């Protein structure tokens, strides 16, 4: 009985928290219209794609580009364009932004706070750090597997003084081999008839 009460409290809390943050604009994730719809809209330096995953619009662009690249292979998931499973993580990222979960909880910077750069994702934010791995790793794998175009090289930007986050396909494959091999397998299976 205690487990049911705890589950009820958890569900009530989740509904309350979810309803307090705006996650949709015109039926799309928040700020979707401002994200990159083409890989060429992301920053490039010396022929290498250099997006900043610590900037909300760049990270949300990862999801938009991956959804666009995988939608043709996802018809078995449903008939709507929003049936792609990656929509869930895109919506979660929007919720984290509008609920303040991407801001610096230490207060030592104004990153992600209403009084600072609202598009900044703080490396001190637990949610922002965990979401890094559900956005950057699949994005790097998508690029490696050719889903973003042929011979796309990616070097993700890192805030000064931040360590522990891989920034290239090779680096992520070394530091997170299990996760990267599973993302690679996901993209490879999608391309099979």
Outline of this structure?
The chain contains 6 helices and 4 strands. The protein has helices at 2-19, 56-70, 86-98, 126-144, 169-175, 177-190, and strands at 24-25, 28-29, 44-45, 48-49. A two-stranded antiparallel sheet has the order 1-2.
Kindly describe this structure.
- The structure is a single chain.
- The chain has 193 residues and is mostly helical.
- The chain has one domain.
- 45% of the residues lie in helices and 4% in strands.
- The chain is built from six helices and four strands; from the N terminus they run H-E-E-E-E-H-H-H-H-H.
- It has helices at residues 2-19, 56-70, 86-98, 126-144, 169-175, 177-190; strands at residues 24-25, 28-29, 44-45, 48-49.
- The strands form two sheets. It has a two-stranded antiparallel ribbon. It has a two-stranded antiparallel sheet with strand order 3-4.
- Helix 2 crosses helix 4 and helix 4 (126-144) crosses helix 6 (177-190).
Q: Report the average pLDDT across residues.
A: 87
| Alpha carbon gyration radius | 18 Å
Helix/strand-derived class? mainly alpha
Shape call: globular
Terminus-to-terminus distance: 49 Å
Largest sheet: 2 strands, antiparallel
List low-pLDDT spans. 1-19
Notable characteristics:
single chain; 193 residues; mainly alpha; two-stranded antiparallel sheet; globular; disordered N terminus; secreted; signal; Leg1; glycoprotein
SSE inventory with pairings:
Layout: H1 2-19, E1 24-25, E2 28-29, E3 44-45, E4 48-49, H2 56-70, H3 86-98, H4 126-144, H5 169-175, H6 177-190
Antiparallel strand pairs: 1-2, 3-4
